[in-house]
Design brief:
One of its GO terms (biological process) is succinate transport. The chain is mainly α. About 70% of the residues lie in helices and about 5% in strands. The protein has a three-stranded antiparallel beta sheet with strand order 1-2-3, covered by helices on one side. Helix 2 packs antiparallel against helix 3. The chain is elongated, with a radius of gyration of 27 Å.
């Protein structure tokens, strides 16, 4: 054995353990960029990010979109900071010049999934080679787009969401009609308050109060023996209203931000969710207490209302998903995908319930399947995955459990043990909500790399054919 062999073995072992400093380039290639182009690119990318974030996209999606736009025009290594109410983008070309930094304040707007769809399509066109001036012109046109539907259509769509919930719960035709009336009254009230720029917290209180007052009136008419109100369950009316007012909350986006590490953004969204949910709860409690003071009480149901017949469950879920898509400004493509995914959600939930899984686990499984399939479909159709996923999981929002817990709190004797028992239904509802958000977020994360792999394979096959 030659004396050089041990040295070679030692050198080979060292290469396996340590990184060779000589393998790292001492310099890097600096792109040649016109100084006048940099602020234009940063302005375009920041405005695109702001519009996406304001209408419902997650912080991670916004960050990726900004970086992709900048990268397409030669600005590599941009620094992006997304918080709950602002976006900051900075680009530093070299150590010899000052960095270019832009910040835009995000003013939260109503979800507009059609506009989000067009913005995502524009980002795809930019990555495909669209020149800067054409991209800026196209974005200005998108930004000026009005909301797709007139206000009366949005109000009726919100009422139809509550109708879908009542059908999902197997309600009789008279309850379905009363649910539509109560939800329509709540939607009109909230639309009027929005025009007066009343804060959303008080808006939610008003919606919950109006829905509960209708339900208490129906209960009082039934107790008085007036037909056709005898023997019906007014709790379904309030449960449908709860789902209506919680349907617009960005649960999936908040869960995504928390998982992605955007702690400040997730904290802001979760606090916003909490305040809006508390608004609904306060409105319902005020309505119940007002009825109690006037001598009209709602009896505590023996058990939460179960789902109805399977065909009605699927029909109700599809109605809910279509209604959510419409009042979020979606086009026909998003509406059809949302309807399909809602059926997948119910199918997953039904199969999981058949094997005796806990309702929270069954809800998570249904949301996971819907979001996974949604990611597969959304990219090719330029459909926002968060839009179709949100619409698909609304049928499983635990409105019945929330109202059951609130009724238990109203009927409690005031002792600590009674309050704990009353709070069990609310905890149950919260666990289901966490399961829905977790399942939807996990489906998005599992589907994204699979979609990327399938896209790479299809591109490789296309190049092989050429």
């Amino acid at each position: 054995m030659s004396p050089k062999s041990p040295r070679r073995l030692l050198a080979a072992a060292r290469r396996l353990v340590h990184t060779d400093p000589a393998s790292v380039a001492a310099t890097e290639v600096m792109p040649v960029i016109d100084e006048r182009t940099v602020p234009k690119v940063l302005d375009l990318s920041t405005r695109i990010g702001e519009s996406m974030f304001a209408i419902g996209a997650s912080a991670h999606e916004v960050t990726l979109a900004i970086m992709r736009v900048c990268d397409a025009y030669g600005l590599r290594g941009v620094q992006v900071d997304v918080t709950y109410n602002s976006i900051t983008v900075s680009f530093h070309l070299s150590g010899e010049v000052w960095p270019e930094t832009l910040m835009r304040v995000v003013r939260v707007a109503a979800p507009d999934h059609a506009k989000l769809q067009r913005v995502q399509a524009l980002v795809s066109d930019i990555r495909g080679g669209l020149d800067l001036e054409s991209a800026r012109t196209a974005f200005r046109a998108i930004r000026r787009m009005p909301f797709r539907y007139q206000q009366p259509i949005v109000v009726v769509a919100r009422a139809m969401l509550a109708v879908g919930v009542s059908i999902l719960l197997g309600a009789s035709p008279i309850i379905v009609g009363l649910t539509f009336i109560a939800a329509l009254a709540a939607a009109i009230t909230q639309a009027g308050l929005s025009r007066l720029q009343v804060p959303l917290f008080f808006n939610q209180i008003a919606g919950g109060f109006v829905t509960t007052v209708v339900a208490v009136a129906v209960s009082a008419l039934g107790a008085a023996g007036i037909e056709p109100f005898v023997g019906i369950r007014p709790s379904i009316i309030v449960a449908s209203g709860i789902v209506l007012m919680l349907a617009g909350l960005t649960v999936v986006g908040a869960a995504q931000d928390a998982i992605d590490g955007f702690a400040l953004t997730a904290g802001g969204r979760i606090l916003d969710l909490t305040m809006q949910t508390l608004g609904v709860v306060i409105g319902i409690l005020v309505g119940l207490e007002l009825g109690s003071v006037l001598g009209f009480t709602m009896d505590l149901p023996d058990d939460p209302a179960p789902f109805g017949p399977l065909l009605g469950v699927f029909a109700g879920a599809i109605i809910i998903a279509v209604a959510v898509a419409v009042f979020n400004g979606a086009g026909i493509r998003i509406i059809l995908v949302s309807a399909l995914l809602s059926a997948i959600t119910i199918a997953g939930y039904t199969l999981a319930s058949a094997v005796q899984l806990h309702p929270a686990a069954a809800s998570a499984l249904g949301a996971l399947l819907a979001s996974f399939v949604g990611v597969m479909i959304a990219h090719n159709l330029h459909v926002p995955s968060v839009a179709v996923t949100t619409a698909a999981i609304v049928p499983l929002v635990p409105g019945v459990a929330v109202f059951q817990g609130l009724l238990e709190m109203v009927h409690t004797g005031g002792s600590a043990s009674d309050v704990v028992v009353a709070g069990s239904s609310l905890i149950y509802a919260a666990v289901i909500g966490v399961g829905l958000a977790s399942g939807a977020s996990l489906g998005l994360y599992l589907g994204t790399p699979v979609r990327a792999t399938l896209g790479s394979v299809s591109k490789a096959r296309a190049r092989t054919r050429r």
